[in-house]
Amino acid sequence: MKRFADLTEQEVLALAISNEDEDHRIYRSFADALRSSYPETAQMYDRMAEEEISHRDMLLDLHRKTFGEFLPLIRRQEVKGFVTRRPVWLTRPLGLDAARKFAEEMEYETARFYRRAAHTAHDEATRDLLRQLAAAEDKHENLAHELGTRLEPQARAAEDQTARRMFTLQYVQPGLAGLMDGSVSTLAPLFAAAFATHNTWQTFLVGLAASVGAGISMAFAEALSDDGSLTGRGAPVVRGSVTGTMTAIGGLGHALPYLIPNFFVATALAFIVVAVELTVISWIRTRYMDTPFLQAAFQVVVGGMLVFAFGILIGNA
Predict the structure, then answer these.
(1) Can you list the domains of the chain with their CATH numbers?
(2) Full-prediction pTM beyond 0.70?
(3) 215 and which of 38, 188, 241, 244 could share a cystine (Cβ 3.0–4.6 Å)?
């Protein structure tokens, strides 16, 4: 992947053109999915799609005048800093809340991209157009939010929505990823050591080593995955620290009971801690990631139990 800072001005314009074309297709997909049940909302997404095409055409005209007809092929997934999106537009039936949230995040990211690009552009005409498009994307973000507030009278003000989204991007998502990894990945080595040795102190040391090692690994992986300049996900050091800390906490939670000398008491308490951890993870996914609780619990519990079972089987081998 290429860093945004290393893109030439022509590549920035080519990336913007590619983004606008992709966003147009996404909005058309939203409109098609919602048209039968929510025709007014579908028409709104149709209008937003048409505006994305007009933005693309403006960028194309500028590119032709500045760089000629050749347009480099460059897409957001090839540039470091963009969020990897779930293909929510392929989901049928498509929920109104899912479409609204996706559109808000998409427009927020695009507006940040245009402001960053305008800041680095050398050509005055390019800067003016990019700033103009950033303002247009801000309007789209507000429109996407309004689509939700008409259906949710209790929705908070736009500022609160933005703050919640930023908190989710910068802290909840990396923290949840770390907690899930720490809670699940350390189950196998911990319980394998427990049932292989029946020694609580040695089991605790294995759990401690696995938790710290996983925390360091996840911290570096998260920090290096995205510099946050385009996505608004915050400083890499902060995100990496949050992810690493939550990974270590997730592993240490069921390792700490093995400080109790009695093996059976420690193991029973560790089982209870694992159940609490998986429940907390499911609740966080429901609260912040809009995942139904039963679906979140099923996904987390099945994965956790598989790792847990393999750890016990290996420990008893």
Answers:
(1) 2-149 (1.20.1260.10), 167-315 (no CATH)
(2) no
(3) 244
